[in-house]
UniProtKB/TrEMBL annotation:
This is FAD-binding oxidoreductase. Keywords: FAD, Flavoprotein. The keyword Flavoprotein applies. Belongs to the FAD-binding oxidoreductase/transferase type 4 family. It holds the Pfam family FAD_binding_4. GO terms for biological process: respiratory electron transport chain. The keyword Flavoprotein applies. Its cofactor is FAD. Residues 33-214 form the FAD-binding PCMH-type domain. GO terms for molecular function: catalytic activity; FAD binding.
Length: 471
């Protein structure tokens, strides 16, 4: 019996896509990578996933797991060899359990993030992971890349939100680790090995996730600054004044605000893009009352204004105004895409080093590539910058060919301040060849050993995360 025939026996003929049917699943979201596949298989449950893995193992066939295909580093795209099976997880989309006494929700990996958020709200709870792609990304992909988003400052990355996992191993076995425990000190933490592994060690099929009380009130402000150093000062002031109520502190450069105005003229901006060089979106979530939230908010922002750290501030008066301010932030990637392809970076830098890093790296880039655009925005509260570089006006043609040189300048600067070349997007195939330059040799050796043990036949997502590893 052939591989395709056995796969059809497992999931049904209609759920094994071949030929032109596979096209929607072969190109990454950014359009940077397009591969080939023997087939795209759509299992319905964990048992079918395990059976698919066992058959692929029998035929020595690589497996690429895919959820919503919203990744930014090509981690869910097969290679051009055409020898892989893409395992599409979108049929595993059930909410399995909500336990409000334990504040947990257990879901299958193909659940769309927004569906999980809405199920939590219906139960009177909050699932705080929030991303621009939340309407299409899946929980399995969020965990596989250890996704971040806009509320990491308060709630942490996907790893901090996961209590238990169900995983199909490289042998086609099922590990049932769906425990909703905050404390479980019974040996090695296998959960954290699979989270962030980008499908290279196993296939996450379900997860038990943390829930939180719904905030009673939220307060949102759009702030203008004279310098990035002032923004960092206000962040420190906000941490001290709000404590754990501080949920978001999103940095936006004047350039980013300008391209939003250019591409989306219907969006009403709180300030003209040329008012200040830097802006931030600040939000707190309060569990007491609207009045309590508003009082704390105005006190901290007022003190920063008096100290000259803030040039101006607009405070949302209603939920609709708050959503409108967030819509500005969420529109930046779309505006960036509409104004031309740039060289993107998802980096993490100690917050205290961000002013120095930006000034130093901007100067290096201008010296080497005069006139390039600095498209800087991101999660200042946790040190994660989307430090993107656009072509100088009139030099868009062939700009992406400079990626290697731009990467070298930016990543060397990141490394110099003890930062990371990937904060929340993962490694995928985009950055796999760079790890050897920016990761400790012992750390890389340990990663290779783990890969050999958990995926001894190197069939799970080959060519991703770790490059040129001999098994």
């Amino acid at each position: 019996m052939s591989l395709l025939a056995e796969l059809q026996d497992i999931v049904g003929v209609e759920h094994v896509l071949k030929g032109d049917e596979t096209a929607p699943y072969l190109t990454d979201w950014r359009g940077r990578y397009t591969g080939k596949a023997l087939a795209v298989v759509r299992p319905a449950d964990v048992e079918e996933v395990a059976a698919v893995v066992r058959v692929c193992l029998q035929f020595n066939t690589p497996i690429v797991t895919q959820g919503g295909n919203t990744g930014l580093c090509g981690g869910a795209t097969p290679s051009n060899k055409g020898d892989a099976v893409v395992v599409l997880m979108t049929r595993l989309n059930k909410i399995l359990e909500i336990d409000t006494d334990n504040d947990t929700i257990t879901v299958q990996a193909g659940c769309v993030l927004q569906t999980v958020q809405e199920a939590a709200v219906q139960a009177g709870r909050l699932f705080p992971l929030s991303l621009a792609s939340e309407g299409s990304c899946t929980i399995g992909g969020n965990l596989a890349t250890n996704a971040g988003g806009t509320q990491v400052l308060r709630y942490g990355n996907a790893r901090e939100l996961a209590l238990g996992l169900q995983v199909v191993t490289a042998d086609g076995e099922i590990w049932n680790g769906l425990r909703g425990l905050r404390k479980d000190n019974t040996g090695y933490d296998l959960r954290d090995l699979f989270i962030g592994s980008e499908g290279t060690l196993g296939i996450i099929t379900a997860a038990t996730l943390k829930l939180y009380p719904l905030p009673v009130a939220r307060s949102t402000a759009f702030l203008a600054f004279n310098s990035i150093a002032d923004a960092v000062k206000v962040l420190s002031r906000a941490r001290h004044g709000f404590g754990s109520a501080l949920t978001g502190f999103e940095l936006i450069s004047a350039y980013c605000l300008g391209i939003v105005a250019q591409v989306f003229p219907q969006i009403k901006l709180p300030f003209s893009p040329d008012k200040s060089p830097w802006y931030a979106l600040l939000e707190i979530s309060d569990n007491e009352s609207e009045d309590h939230a508003r009082g704390r908010f105005e006190a901290v922002i007022g003190d920063a204004l008096e100290a000259g750290e803030i040039v101006d501030a607009v405070i949302a008066e209603t939920s609709a105004q708050s959503q409108a301010l967030w819509h500005i932030r969420e529109s930046i990637p779309l505006a960036e895409a509409a104004t031309g392809k740039g060289i993107k970076h998802d980096i993490a830098v100690p917050v205290s080093k961000i002013p120095e890093f930006i000034a130093h790296t901007n100067a290096l880039l201008q010296a080497r590539f005069p006139g390039v655009q600095h498209i800087i925005f991101g999660h200042l509260g946790d040190g994660n910058l989307h430090y993107n570089v656009g072509a100088a006006p009139g030099q868009e043609e062939g700009f992406l060919s400079l990626q290697k040189d731009v990467y070298k300048i930016v990543f060397d600067s990141v490394y110099a301040v003890n930062g990371s070349i990937s904060a929340e997007h993962g490694i995928g195939q985009l950055k796999k060849d760079l790890l050897i330059d920016y990761k400790d040799e012992v750390e890389l050796a340990l990663m290779r050993k783990i890969k050999r043990v958990l995926d001894p036949h190197a069939l799970f997502n080959p060519g991703k995360v770790i490059s040129s590893v001999e098994f």
